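In response to reviewer comment 3 from the previous cycle, which asked for concrete evidence that the modeling workflow produces usable outputs, we include below a single protein chain processed end to end. The sequence was submitted unchanged, and the resulting C-alpha cells are shown without manual editing.
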Amino acid sequence: MRVEKSNAVALIVDIQERLFPHIDGYQELEKNVGILIGGLKALEVPVLVTEQYVKGLGASIPSVEELIAQDPHVEKMAFSCCDEPKFTETLELTTKRFVIIAGIESHICVLQTAIDLKERGFNPVVVEDCVGSRNPANKANAMERLRQEGVIVSTYESILFELCRYAGTDAFKTISKLVK
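The workflow returned the following C-alpha cells.
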C-alpha cells in the first residue's frame, strides 16, 4: 500500500522537555525527528502535535517546537491521542487517511494511538527511527506489537522518499540534503 502525500498527515506525539532526556538514544531521536519534520514540511504534509499534561511534562523540546510552532497543538491527558476529542476533531478535518507518527513513548502513547487509528479506519505509519522509549526493550516490544496489529512501520528516509516519489523536484533536493 503506497503512502501518498496528498492523503497523509503527520503526528508528532509528546516530544516534551521533562520526559525527552530520559528516552533511550534521545540525541539521535532528536536529530531524526528534525529530519523527518523538515522533509514533511518540504513536501507540504500537514503536521499535528500532541503534548501530554504540559504542566507536568513541559512543552515540546525547543528544537522540535521551532519546526512545528505554526502547526496545531493539542494537549491531552489520555495516552492514546484518539481518546482526546480535540485531536480526533482536528484529524478528521484534514480528511487525510494516512497518519505518519513520530514521538514518545513507543510502547504507550505511540502504540495506543496507532492501534486506535487503525481501528477507526486510518492507516497509521509509525516511523521506527523517530519513536523512542526510556527502555529499549519496551520500544522493541512496541514495534513487534505494531507489526502484529498490521500497522505500517517505516524509517524517516524511506517514508520521505516514498512521499516524494520523483527525483529532481525542489522537495527531493531538500530531502536529499536533510538525509545526508
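The longest strand covers residues 123-132. We consider this sufficient to address the reviewer's concern, and the full set will be provided in the supplementary archive.
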